[in-house]
C-alpha cells in the first residue's frame, strides 16, 4: 500500500521557537527528586541544634507553604494546558507540569524524612503539612485568586485573561513569592543570600538547600516563559500594560503578607524588600520596549548563581 504524504501541513515542531528552546533546556537539566542528598544530615543537625518549638514551628510553616504551593500550582496549570493550541507551547507546558510535580514530591519527602522525625525525637507535636494553621489569610487569598484566574480561561480565553493568568501564576506565585522564599531558605540555612534574614545562628542544611537549588533552576525557566508571553502581548499592543501593572500591584500585598508573619527565627523585612525588588524588575522588562527577556540558559544560570551567592 502506497503511503500518501500530506502536503497541506508543515513540520509541526519549530526548533527555533522560544517554547522549543525552553523544552530542550528542561530535558537537558532533568533531575530526580528521589536522589537529592543531605536529608539524613539535616535531620541530625536539627537534633544537635535543638531548636525551640517556636523556631521549629516557623521552619515547618515555611516548608508547609512551599509544599502546598507546589501542589497547588501543579493543579492550577491544567486550564492553560487545555487552551494552548501550539504544539511547541504544549510541549513546554507538559515539562512544566512534570517539574511542578517533582517539586511537590521533594517537599513531601522532606517532611516525611526530616520534619516529622525531628518533631518526634524532640517531643514536639507531629503535624501534617496540610494543617490549616500553616496558611495565613494572604497565602490563601493569593492562591484562590490564581486558581480563579487560570480557570477563567476555560470559559473566556481572551488575550487579556491569558496575560492576567500569566501574571498570577508565572510572575507572582513563581517569580516573586517562590523566589523570595527560596532566597529566605538559602539565606538562613547556607552561606548564600543575605545575613540579614536569619535571626538565629542556624546550621547549614544541605538537604533543603540542595533541593531548593534544583527547584529554583526550574523556576527560572518557568518565569521566563511567562514573561516572554506577557511581554509579547504588551509590546504588540494586544493587551494594555496597565493590566499587568494592576494585576501585579493587586497581588503584591498578598505576597508580603505571606512572609510577614515570621519573626521567631526569620526576619520578614528583608524578604518583603526582596519581593518588591523582584516585582519591579519583572514589570520593567515587560513594559520597557528596549528591554529583553534573557535567553533561557541565562535565566536558569542566574537562578543557580543566585542560589549560592548574595542575591543581585
TrEMBL record:
InterPro entries reported for this sequence: Ferritin-like_SF, RNR-like
UniProt source species: Halorientalis brevis
The name this protein goes by in its record: Ribonucleoside-diphosphate reductase
Annotated SUPFAM superfamilies: Ferritin-like
Source organism phylogeny: Archaea, Methanobacteriati, Methanobacteriota, Stenosarchaea group, Halobacteria
Amino acid at each position: 500500500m502506497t503511503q500518501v504524504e500530506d502536503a497541506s501541513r508543515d513540520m509541526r515542531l519549530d526548533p527555533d521557537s522560544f517554547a522549543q528552546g525552553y523544552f530542550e533546556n528542561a530535558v537537558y537539566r532533568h533531575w530526580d527528586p528521589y536522589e537529592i542528598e543531605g536529608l539524613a544530615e539535616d535531620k541530625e543537625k536539627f537534633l544537635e541544634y535543638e531548636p525551640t518549638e517556636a523556631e521549629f514551628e516557623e521552619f515547618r510553616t515555611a516548608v508547609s507553604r512551599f509544599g502546598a504551593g507546589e501542589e497547588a500550582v501543579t493543579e492550577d496549570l491544567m486550564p492553560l494546558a487545555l487552551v494552548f493550541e501550539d504544539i511547541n507551547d504544549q510541549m513546554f507546558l507538559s515539562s512544566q507540569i512534570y517539574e511542578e510535580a517533582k517539586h511537590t514530591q521533594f517537599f513531601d519527602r522532606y517532611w516525611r524524612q526530616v520534619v516529622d522525625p525531628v518533631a518526634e525525637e524532640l517531643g514536639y507535636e507531629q503535624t501534617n503539612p496540610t494543617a490549616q494553621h500553616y496558611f495565613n489569610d494572604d497565602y490563601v487569598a493569593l492562591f484562590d485568586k490564581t486558581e480563579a484566574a487560570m480557570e477563567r480561561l476555560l470559559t473566556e480565553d481572551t488575550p487579556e485573561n491569558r496575560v492576567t493568568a500569566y501574571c498570577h501564576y508565572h510572575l507572582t506565585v513563581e517569580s516573586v513569592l517562590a523566589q523570595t522564599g527560596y532566597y529566605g531558605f538559602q539565606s538562613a540555612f547556607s552561606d548564600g543570600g543575605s545575613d540579614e534574614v536569619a535571626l538565629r545562628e542556624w546550621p547549614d542544611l544541605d538537604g533543603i538547600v540542595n533541593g531548593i537549588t534544583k527547584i529554583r533552576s526550574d523556576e527560572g525557566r518557568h518565569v521566563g516563559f511567562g514573561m516572554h508571553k506577557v511581554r509579547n502581548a504588551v509590546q504588540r499592543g494586544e493587551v494594555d500594560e496597565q493590566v499587568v501593572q494592576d494585576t501585579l500591584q493587586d497581588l503584591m500585598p498578598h505576597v508580603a503578607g505571606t512572609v510577614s508573619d515570621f519573626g521567631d527565627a526569620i526576619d520578614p523585612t528583608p524578604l518583603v524588600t526582596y519581593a518588591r525588588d523582584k516585582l519591579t524588575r519583572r514589570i520593567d522588562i515587560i513594559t520597557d520596549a528596549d528591554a529583553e527577556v534573557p535567553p533561557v540558559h541565562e535565566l536558569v544560570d542566574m537562578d543557580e548563581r543566585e542560589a549560592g551567592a548574595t542575591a543581585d
